[in-house]
């Protein structure tokens, strides 16, 4: 790859198939761009609904059209158009997609994916690990398949340890159990992991909970893939990656993928391709329209004086939670930029006190260009839900965090932020204005602020080195490409 040699004239054609949520689309579309720049033909398969939203963002379609060998395709998700497709509808989304997508996906593989644009047949699949049917159909069609897990490697490993958690009595959770009790059976994390830090699905009171069975099935399926790709990095999660490697065929930690994409652009001479004809240099993959007025607002603020607040693309908030967070931010005394999605407040709109008081010290945006915001010198703290994409972007930017995790892998990620990487404060299981105020002040100017900033700057430097030519993520990408091509060649009659 580093030599710039391209393979578009050969039959290598990879289908990349994400689960239809923003947090899954973002890293997998980055991978599609990376592979296309590396010389492999790529088809990115989205849903109709998300495809339209993606291309409605200014410049995104033009940028993706400029990627050599990359084409976008979409299929229905089985839901009515007015379905909100949020976190509360996750079970409905999975059921509808499991019923609708498999025959369309099978047709795409059986036809080889070839159509009027002259693309060669699909010869390899990289599918989201949440798509249970993807590996069944690929095996049936004789097409090699790799899994992509969009959660942290640590969360993946915790899911793998669920049988042991049940065997040792950590799960199911009993009424009144001690959430701060250490968990010893998730190997590699014994010195810091507590019951409350396990992924939220582990908080069940029933070991036969359908969500637990679903996760166990996904984990068991991991051995059926040619390998598992993680948007993670050796330097960040080496303590669990070493254990995962003993359970799956091959692992490819190639993150942070947004940084790797930049490095591949440089190594292939693609930088500047987006510089003319109205094509922006931004690598946004947002399904939401970004409010760029927030960048002008940040320009007027002093260095490291602003708290950036975002809880991602699907986390819902109640009014009481919103008000506690709001008062905690206001009472901290710092300016803040807060992303409040139109669908975020589950029991009504933004309370009047928030709407009326935002001019005092805060800026509310429906969506923001997060990578640019985190890279702005005015931002001194990131109040986050600890979603994995957001965490990687915060690490890349070197911004210390206040973690308020909500669901799934966010709970274990926030513990890594505070106790392993030591680049932030974890306030999980609380939503109290006094706690929020104290945590923000601690990160911005408390006794440990200097240490957290130094640790964040160090991890940012390491992340940037890992994606450069010769770095661990770059080498893992080269190995992934070699193994994709090898799997195609070995499957060709």
Detailed description of the structure:
- The protein is of the alpha/beta class.
- It folds into two domains: 13-156 and 209-282 and 466-491, Rossmann fold (3-Layer(aba) Sandwich); 293-446, Glycogen Phosphorylase B (Rossmann fold, 3-Layer(aba) Sandwich).
- Helix content is 45%, strand content 12%.
- It has helices at 22-37, 48-56, 60-65, 90-110, 132-141, 153-160, 162-167, 210-221, 234-244, 257-268, 293-299, 319-332, 352-361, 370-374, 388-397, 410-420, 433-445, 449-467, 472-491; strands at residues 13-17, 41-47, 70-75, 124-128, 145-149, 228-230, 251-253, 306-310, 335-339, 362-365, 379-384, 401-403, 424-426.
- The radius of gyration is 22 Å and the shape is globular.
- Residues 272-281 have low confidence and may be disordered.
């Amino acid at each position: 790859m580093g030599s710039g040699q391209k393979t578009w004239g050969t039959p290598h054609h990879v289908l990349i198939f994400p689960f239809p949520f923003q947090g899954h689309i973002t890293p997998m579309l980055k991978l599609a761009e990376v592979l296309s720049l590396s010389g492999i033909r790529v088809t990115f398969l989205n849903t109709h609904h998300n495809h339209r939203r993606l291309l409605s963002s200014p410049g995104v379609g033009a940028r993706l059209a400029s990627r050599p060998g990359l084409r976008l395709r979409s299929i229905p998700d089985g839901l009515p158009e007015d379905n909100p497709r949020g976190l509360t509808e996750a079970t409905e989304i999975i059921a509808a997609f499991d019923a609708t997508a498999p025959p369309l996906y099978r047709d795409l593989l059986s036809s080889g994916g070839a159509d009027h644009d002259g693309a060669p047949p699909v010869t390899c699949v990289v599918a989201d690990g949440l798509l249970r049917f993807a590996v069944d159909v690929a095996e049936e069609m004789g097409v090699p398949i790799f899994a992509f897990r969009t959660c942290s490697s640590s969360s993946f490993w915790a899911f793998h340890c669920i049988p042991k958690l049940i065997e040792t009595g950590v799960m199911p959770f009993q009424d009144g159990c001690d959430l701060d009790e250490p968990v010893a059976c998730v190997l590699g994390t014994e010195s810091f992991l507590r019951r409350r830090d396990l992924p939220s699905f582990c908080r069940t009171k029933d070991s036969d909970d359908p969500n637990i069975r679903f996760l166990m099935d996904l984990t068991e399926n991991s051995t059926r893939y040619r390998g598992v790709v993680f948007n993670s990095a050796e330097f960040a999660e080496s303590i669990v990656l070493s254990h995962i490697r003993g359970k799956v065929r091959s692992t490819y930690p190639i993150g942070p993928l947004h940084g790797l994409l930049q490095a591949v652009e440089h190594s292939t001479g693609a930088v500047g391709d987006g510089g003319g004809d109205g094509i922006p240099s931004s690598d946004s993959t947002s399904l939401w329209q970004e409010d760029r007025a927030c960048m002008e607002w940040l320009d007027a603020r002093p260095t490291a004086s602003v708290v950036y607040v975002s809880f991602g693309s699907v986390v819902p908030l109640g009014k009481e939670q919103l008000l506690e967070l709001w008062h905690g931010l206001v009472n901290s005394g710092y300016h803040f930029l807060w992303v409040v999605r139109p669908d975020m407040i589950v029991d009504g709109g933004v309370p009047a006190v928030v709407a009326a008081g935002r001019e005092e010290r805060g800026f509310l945006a429906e969506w923001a260009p997060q990578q640019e915001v985190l890279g702005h010198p005015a931002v001194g703290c990131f109040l986050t839900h600890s979603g994995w994409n957001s965490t990687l972007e915060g690490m890349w930017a070197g911004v210390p965090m206040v973690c308020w995790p909500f669901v799934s892998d966010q709970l274990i990620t926030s513990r890594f932020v505070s106790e392993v990487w030591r680049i932030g404060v974890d306030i999980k299981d609380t939503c109290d204005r006094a706690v929020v105020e104290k945590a923000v002040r601690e990160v911005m100017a408390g006794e440990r602020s200097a240490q957290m900033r130094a640790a964040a700057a160090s991890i940012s430097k390491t992340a940037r080195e890992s994606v450069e030519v010769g770095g661990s993520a770059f080498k893992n990408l080269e190995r992934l490409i070699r193994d994709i091509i090898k799997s195609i060649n070995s499957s060709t009659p």
